[in-house]
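ok so for the tutorial part 2 we go from a plain amino acid sequence to predicted structure tokens. step 1 is just haveing the sequence, like this:
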Amino acid sequence: MHKDLFLGIIYLLGSLAFIVGLKRLSSPKTARTGNLVAAAGMLLAIIGTIVLHEKDGQPIGNIVFILAAMAVGTGIGWYMAIRVKMTKMPEMVSFFNGMGGACAAVISIVEFNTHPHSETGFLVVVFAGLMIGSVSFSGSLIAYAKLAEKIKDIFVSWLQIMNLFIVAGIIALIVVGVMKPEMLGHSIIWIIFGVSLVYGVLFVLPIGGADMPVVISLLNSFTGVAAALGGFLYGNEVMLTGGILVGSAGTILTVDMCRAMNRPLSNVLIGAFGGGKGGAAQGSDGDQVVKEISITDAAILCRYAQKVSIIPGYGLAVAQAQHVCHEFEKILEEKGVTVNFPIHPVAGRMPGHMNVLLAEADVPYPKLIEMDDANPQMPNTDVVLVLGANDVVNPAAENDPSSPIYGMPIIQAEKAKNVIVIKRSMSKGYAGIQNQLFFRKNTRMLFGDAKDALEKLIAAVKDM
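step 2 — the prediction. this is what the tokens look like for a chain of 464 residues:
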């Protein structure tokens, strides 16, 4: 009895650590400690379970195997985390999220095989956890492959209709498994598992590249819900709390990101954006003229400006230029220039990608400003430096109703006095359309690798 009470207190402390950790994740300045607090809560819950949990008066067995599995998993996770490049961070997040979904699915399979003739409520939770976990697992692996550009977007008109039939089929199988478990016996769990895996693959395949941050967030919420269902199965409060927090946070983030793109979630899920469609907005550049700028002239503009805004995008991560970018910012600050970094909510390939990228380079947190705070400042900004960003600064979102990104809130870089775009070429962004910003009268293109261009700008500013 005393053990149960003590374990309950440990689970309560673990749950509180999750809540505090999640709260601290709301700010880049406190996100690191938030991760550590939540991790400490999980470690406390794991140790408490191993040492104090009992079933029918018997402690947990196979401790050696449990610790060995934990050691292997910890080693793999640690190795992947220290080796991953910032450009590959979205892929790693997708992979880890998929592993969480797989774990939830395995829990459901084990529990069904252990208690195949349980109450209706128990079976509903088992099958729901199996379905959601399996979809999260296979869907996350497809998202990983698409982010790594190993799989291309697949747009087939009948695919979405097939997906609806598959979902209906899974629900029908769950109803049969709950109401008539003897009809298919133990095979029902494997049928639902297999069909759910197929649905996870077909669910993510048609979704366009520009929508992958939303998909990652959505799949993350699926994993959280599946983990919460596992908490119901085991009557484990800390597992339930953690799953609910992940599921609800992922859902809120998904909705917020859709709002930032001014698109309903249903539109994201039918793969209507970012994968090669785009209609009239994809047309040729016509007679539009691009004006280039030299390193020296760009350096002069930045050096003698009062205020410079640097807008980062995925191209900054590709060039691994975050540290050089921070050095450029410091050089300008030393010359008396005010510098900030406007961040678009869906810049990069996962939620918060640019925040993590710049935090890695030790850019001060107060310099990272949200889109809604940055836009009113644009008319008073002397120079906007666009580094690897594309669709998130494209004026077509505001003035071209035929554009697939029309209505999406953007960082209004065009309103600045001068715009310098550092880019390798005139290639299009994820949405597959040309960026109207490139042809504005106040825009100059500085072609080349972002890291190399910044290094040359730093040298030029130092010589002034």
